[in-house]
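Reading group handout, session on sequence-to-structure problems. Before we discuss, look at one worked example. The prompt was deliberately terse, the way you'd type it at a terminal:

> structure HNH endonuclease

The input record follows.
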Amino acid sequence: MAEAMETPGGEAYLAAIAGIVADAEDIGRQIAAGQIAELRMLAAAGQLADQQGARKDANVLLHDMALRSISAEVAGAMRMTDRTVQRRIGEARLTIEGFPAAVAAWEAGRIVQGHVKAIVNAGLTLPGELWAAFEAIAIERCEGDTPNRVRGELEILAHRMHPRSFAERHEEAAAGRCVRLVPGRDGMSDLIATLPTVIVEGIHDRLTQQARAIIDTRDERSADSDVVATDARSTDQVRADVFADLLLAGTPALDDTRDTTAGPLGAIRARVQVLVPAATLTDADDRPCDLAGRSPIDPATARLLAGSTHIWERLFHDPTTGVTISTDSYRVPSGMRRFLQARDQHCRFPGCRVAAIRCEVDHTHDHALGGRTELSNLAHLCQRHHSMKQFTAWRVRQLSGGVLEWTSPLGRTYREDAPTPAVAFTPAATHPGDPAPF
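And the output record:
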């Protein structure tokens, strides 16, 4: 029995996992019930303060004192500060009263708390009269997917429903860009830059590439250099050090740049992956564009990136003449790789949002076992989930339309639909007597 427990796939091992999963589901239901009950309790506390403030002899001060008093009372029971409880009362009322359908779907087990938070956060960018319509669409989109995966889509949905254009609102928000210094403990501080998302993504990507280059070089030379061998910094630490080097000296300290020519690290440039609807690319509308794995960006920035930098490869897919769909070699041709990046957008393991440009193209049916290099047998997986597919009992098969069906060691299946297409075609409005639009 002990040997079976130690062997992945043994009956005792699988039974133990099944028990843990069943416990996780049961505990999840219990936690959700408690979280919802707490949310309703906090909202009721705020409503009670409103009732006190609605008395004929009440004023703004009386209402505020009533809310403070109730918050302090509840804080004593919850072992929190009264300020924290008062803030949570406001958040609870906003959720319960502003997005009741999302709370009901959470209570019914259709979605989880993370979905509710994502719906509320995205919905708050809309005028209140649009919340119900947004909520109905958002709940349907959340079912069957993780909060992390749908968060960006919900933000774009809210932007598209907003009566003011995203470009106009982004221009106003960009006026508030700034850099802030927040003192910390033990001689450390946080330097916080509020910048357009695509700029921040590019900065982080370049720092990550440079940090990886330093670590790879360190690992290769550690046996030949005592100095390199003592460098045990993590990726986060190297990234922070390179960030400081670039700002203070203009070049990474470990770069071997001797003159105006960029060295290995200096030559690294940022990469970002943006999905641009065709109508937005051609300036036919001002809808927000999706920065894969992050959040929406303004259309003007997306057009600038698509049209004026050599790093971008513009992708135009002609279903009649265009994309390479199969090859006899193991290597994926660049045209096919670009098409897969546009199709997959991110890692195709359920819930993962690592952008496709940071993933590996995996043969769903292994090439060594006869799998072909064709679109219907290829999908992007991040290094973590690519390794899990190779070295654990998780299995995947690709259905039509790029849909992946994952099967866990317990036999539970998880369907990973292809992401929402970056381009969609809708028929133009016609009037009686108009010629057919084709």
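Points for discussion. First: Residues 326-416 form one domain. Second: The chain has a mean pLDDT of 81.
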